Amino acid sequence: MAMLVVETLVVMIVAVGIGVGLGALLRTAAGPGARDPAFADGESVPETEPVGPAAAAGAAEADDAIIDPDRAAAADQVGVRPPALAGPRDHRPDDLRLIRGIGPQSEERLRALGVYHVDQIADWSGEEMRWIGAYLGMPGRVEREDWSGQARRLLGED
User: What is the distance between the alpha carbons of residues 128 and 34, in angstroms, rounded to a whole number?
Assistant: First the structure.
């Protein structure tokens, strides 16, 4: 039995070694531009400026840079945009995914809109929920899943 365990470990170690060796060989043969042709000459990835409401002095200027104006215009037809913050209070945003229906992508989009805290969502009116639903491309879902009510319950207000 012990011999079988030793043999299995040896085979696994050899397999890992072969995999690592082949990976290194293929990476070397492919060259530096294999992953992204834009950097085929070996130049490094360019530095980028932080984007988002927290990165800018004026929230309105930052919002214009990251908010899709077509989506916002369409959302303006059905509701009212909720108030936004320039960044999270105390530099610590809440985990908005605690609200059923908010996944990673919705949380990212809400943060881009200046929504960082559960209490912001708890304060939304019906018109603001319609605006958010339309902007996120899921009209009716925010109201149906009662994001505002869920947020109030998380805060102990209901």
Answer: 46
Alpha-carbon 32 to chain mean position? 29
Count of CB atoms situated within 10 Å of the CB of 22: 10
Where does the pLDDT of residue 32 fall: very low under 50, low under 70, confident under 90, or very high at 90 and above?
Answer: low
Q: How far apart are CA 53 and CA 50, in angstroms?
A: 9
Report the distance separating Cα 158 and Cα 156, nearest Å: 6
Q: 122: Cβ–Cβ under 8 A, 6 or more apart, which residues?
A: 148, 151, 152, 154, 155, 157
Please give the pLDDT value at position 108: 94
**Is the whole-model pTM more than 0.70?**
no
